Amino acid sequence: MKLTMMMNLFEMFDPSFNNYLSLNWLFMFLPIIVMPSTFWLIQSRILFTFKTLLNYMYNEFKVISKSNYQSNIIIFISLMIYIMITNLFSLIPYIFTLTSHLLLNMILSLTLWFSFLIYLIYKNTMQFLSHLVPLNSPVFLMNFMVIIELISLIIRPWTLSIRLSANLISGHLILTLLGIFISNFITLLPINILIQNMLLTLEIFMSIIQSYVFSILLILYFSESN
Predict the structure, then answer these.
(1) Which terminus of the chain has fewer Cβ atoms in its 10 Å neighbourhood, N or C?
(2) 64-107, pLDDT tens digit by residue?
(3) 154 pLDDT above the threshold of 70
């Protein structure tokens, strides 16, 4: 009985709805479809809000990025918008939670991080090697510091992916468990619905914040490589 309950609890994170097809992964193309179009003569309120958000995020990222590489900010803004729309759509019932899987998150983080690392090694090899030993490190600890710095460098894409997945999974599980609790205690229905709505609002803000954190950390890694 407990095994069946756990399978039902985690089935919303299953990308396959049968043994042969995995059409839930097609959801990754939905944010591209719902992007507001700019071919209208008079822009709508949605498009105006979208452009305002883009301008605000560009100014935020411009502070971190160097002046010579500010043209690359659009990559990180696009990544943030994509993750944010995916997170928000995953809060809709019966919608597959795409960003809760390490497969997609590792694709987004590992590819960009690896390209930054290759660029850094190719353009600034000595700078890359010098960063492996922090300034004023004791001589007898230098070998260990190189190992620690390499490990911290390698786990960066993993920490980005795990952070995003863990936050999405925990939030959805809390909402699901609270929904099961509401169905078992009808007498506490008004209080439980109020609590669930508060948690849903918290999940909406968390979805936006996590997309911002994911993108801002990647642009910090990009700035370090330059």
Answers:
(1) N
(2) 777 666 777 888 888 888 888 888 888 877 777 788 888 888 88
(3) yes
pLDDT tens track for 107-130: 888 888 888 888 878 877 777 777
Rounded to whole angstroms, how far apart are CA atoms 181 and 189? Answer: 9
What average pLDDT does the chain have? 76
Predicted local confidence at residue 2, as pLDDT: 41
What contacts 222, CB < 8 A, 6 or more positions away?
Answer: 65, 69, 72, 76, 112, 116
Residue 175 near residue 13 (C-beta atoms within 8 A): no
Higher per-residue confidence, 201 vs 138: 201
Contact 54, 40 (CB under 8 A): no
Region for 20 from its dihedrals, namely left if φ exceeds 0, alpha if ψ lies in -120 to 50, beta otherwise: alpha
Exposure string for 119-146, b = 16+ CB within 10 A, e = fewer? ebeeeeeeebeeeeeeeeeeeeeeeeee
The single residue listed with the structure tokens 């958000």 is: 53
Burial of 96 (0-12, 13-18, 19+ CB in 10 A): buried
Maximum pairwise Cα distance, the chain: 68
Residue given tokens 């609590």 in the structure block: 195
CA angle in degrees (0–180, nearest 5) for 196-192-169: 35
Tokens 């899987």 sit on residue: 101
Answer positive or negative: Cα dihedral of 191, 192, 193, 194.
positive
Range 54-74 burial, b when 16+ CB lie within 10 A, else e: eeebeebbeeebeeeeeeebe
